[in-house]
Write a structure and sequence with these properties.
The protein is mostly helical and 452 residues long. It has one domain. 84% of the residues lie in helices and 0% in strands. The chain has 20 helices and no strands. Helix 4 packs antiparallel against helix 5 and helix 8 runs antiparallel to helix 9. The protein starts with a helix and ends with a helix. The model has no long low-confidence stretch (mean pLDDT 82).
C-alpha cells in the first residue's frame, strides 16, 4: 500500500484505525511496563529498594522528555515535508532526530556517571537508600543513549505509515523487560539494580529492531550521516514543535512531587493510594493520548499538502473516538473502582483513600483526549507556542497553585480533584485557542488566494 494513500486518500475511519490502534497498543504496553517494574521490585519485600527506584524516576522521565521532544517534533516536521513532496527534507529530519537523540543520550550517560552522588543526594537519597539508588542509576546511565534513541525512533517511523512497526519495536523492548525483570530481580537476587539492567537490555533490543527497520524497510527516512543537518529551520522547528510534549513530561514529575508533599501531611496511606491511582488512571489517559499521537502524522501530512478538508475530517473523527473511548473507560472504572485498587494492595485504609481518589481523577477522563488532539493539531500546523502554554498550565502553572489552594480551602478532599479541575480548564482553553488558530489559517488562505 502506498504511503500517500494512507495519509492522503484512504477512508478516514480506516486510516485512523490503521495509524491509531498500534499507537494505542504501544501506549498501553508502556503503562503495563511501568506497573510491572514497580511490581517486581516490590516482590523483594525491601521498601528501601522500592524507594530507590522511586527516587530515580525523575532521571527516566527527563530522558523521555528529550525523546518525546525529538520524536514528536521530528514526526510533525517530517510529515509536513512529505505532504509538500519534499522527500529529501524528510530524510534530513529523520537523520537529525536519530543522531541528536544519540548525542543527548551520551551526554546523559556522562553527566550521570560523573555527577551521580550530588544528583542522587538532590533527589533525596540518604544513607539507607543511596547504594540501591546508585546501582540502579549506574545501569540506567549507560542505557541512556538506547532509551532516548529507541523512544524517538518509535515516533519518527510513523511518518511513513509504519505505525505497526513502531508498535512492534516498542513491544520488543517492553516484553523483554517484563520477562527479564523477575530473572534479574528475584532469580539473581539483584533487586533494583536488576530492574535497571532489564530496562537497558530491553531498550537495546528495541534499538536493534528500529535499526533493522531503517536499514532494510524504510523508503522515505534515512540514517545516513550525510543527511544530518541542523540548518534550514530543522533544529528550531523540531525542538519548538516537540517542546510541549517535553514540558508535559518534565512538569508531570514536578507536580507529582508537590502532590506527594501535600498528601504526606495526612499520613502514609494517602501517599500510597495516590501512587496506585496514578498507575490505574494512566490507562484512561494513555488510551486517548495514544490515539491522538497515532493520527498526528496524518494531520501534519495533510496540512503540508494543503488538504484542509481531510485534515478536518481526521480531526473530527479522532475527537469523536476519544470521547467514546473516554466515556466507556470512565464508566467501567467507576463500576469496578474498588477491585481495581485491590489489584495493587490489600490494605483497607489505602483502598478507602484509593477509591475516593480514583473517582476524583477519572472525572476528566471523558474529555482529556480533546486536549491532546487540540495540542497535536496546533503542533501539526506549526503553532507550537500555544500548545507549549497548554502543557505548562496543565502540569505546572495552573495545577501546582491550585493544589495548594484546594488543600488550604478543603483539605485532602479538595486536593484529589485538583487534576480534574485543571484538565477541564485546559480543555476549555485548548478549544478556544485552536478555534482561533484554525480561523486564522482560513483567513490566511483567503488572503493568499486573493493575492494570487
Amino acid at each position: 500500500m502506498e504511503d500517500n494513500e494512507l495519509m492522503g486518500s484512504m477512508k478516514v475511519s480506516k486510516a485512523v484505525a490503521k495509524m491509531a490502534v498500534p499507537s494505542v497498543i504501544s501506549s498501553l504496553v508502556t503503562v503495563v511496563y511501568n506497573m510491572a517494574d514497580t511490581f517486581f521490585v516490590g516482590q523483594t519485600g525491601n521498601a528501601l529498594q522500592v524507594a530507590a527506584v522511586s527516587l530515580t524516576n525523575p532521571i527516566f522521565i527527563l530522558m523521555m522528555a528529550f525523546a518525546n521532544m525529538f520524536g514528536m517534533g521530528g514526526s510533525a516536521v517530517a510529515s509536513m515535508a512529505l505532504g509538500e513532496q519534499k522527500e529529501k527534507r524528510a530524510k534530513n529530519v529523520s537523520a537529525f532526530v536519530l543522531y541528536a537523540s544519540l548525542i543527548v543520550g551520551i551526554a546523559f550517560m556522562l553527566i550521570l556517571m560523573i555527577f551521580m552522588k550530588p544528583i542522587l543526594t538532590l533527589f533525596g537519597a540518604d544513607a539507607e537508600t543511596y547504594e540501591f539508588a546508585r546501582g540502579y542509576t549506574f545501569h540506567i546511565s549507560y542505557g541512556a543513549p538506547f532509551i532516548i534513541w529507541s523512544a524517538a525512533s518509535s515516533f519518527v517511523i510513523r511518518v511513513e505509515g509504519a505505525s505497526r512497526e513502531a508498535m512492534i519495536g516498542s513491544m520488543v523492548g517492553t516484553v523483554a523487560n517484563i520477562i527479564l525483570d523477575p530473572v534479574f530481580i528475584s532469580v539473581f537476587g539483584m533487586g533494583a539494580t536488576g530492574a535497571a539492567i532489564a530496562t537497558t537490555i530491553g531498550n537495546v533490543l528495541s534499538c536493534l529492531y528500529f535499526l533493522w527497520y531503517f536499514l532494510k524497510k524504510s523508503r522515505l527516512l534515512s540514517l545516513n550521516p550525510r543527511y544530518f543537518r541542523c540548518g534550514d529551520g530543522i533544529l528550531v522547528k523540531i525542538c519548538s514543535i516537540g517542546l510541549p510534549t517535553a514540558i508535559f513530561s518534565a512538569l508531570m514529575s514536578v507536580s507529582t512531587i508537590v502532590l506527594n508533599q501535600i498528601l504526606v501531611a495526612y499520613g502514609n496511606a494517602p501517599v500510597a493510594a495516590i501512587g496506585i491511582v496514578f498507575k490505574a488512571n494512566m490507562f484512561i489517559t494513555f488510551l486517548q493520548m495514544g490515539l491522538a499521537n497515532g493520527v498526528q502524522p496524518m494531520l501534519g501530512y495533510n496540512y503540508g499538502a494543503g488538504n484542509e478538508k481531510r485534515f478536518r475530517e481526521i480531526e473530527r473523527f479522532s475527537k469523536i473516538c476519544c470521547l467514546i473511548v473516554g466515556i466507556i473507560s470512565v464508566i467501567l472504572y467507576y463500576l469496578f473502582r474498588e477491585p481495581i485498587i485491590r489489584i495493587f494492595i490489600n490494605d483497607e485504609e489505602v483502598i478507602r483513600y484509593g477509591v475516593q481518589m480514583l473517582i476524583g481523577y477519572m472525572l476528566s477522563g471523558p474529555v482529556i483526549g480533546i486536549l491532546f488532539m487540540n495540542m497535536n493539531c496546533l503542533q501539526s500546523v506549526e503553532h507550537a507556542f500555544p500548545a507549549t502554554v497548554l502543557s505548562i498550565l496543565r502540569q505546572g502553572l495552573l495545577l501546582i497553585p491550585l493544589l495548594y489552594l484546594l488543600d488550604f480551602l478543603f483539605g485532602m478532599n479538595g486536593v484529589i480533584y485538583g487534576q480534574s479541575i485543571t484538565d477541564y480548564i485546559a480543555v476549555g482553553l485548548s478549544v478556544v485557542i485552536w478555534a482561533r488558530v484554525r480561523r486564522g489559517l482560513g483567513e490566511e488562505k483567503k488572503t493568499a488566494a486573493a493575492a494570487g
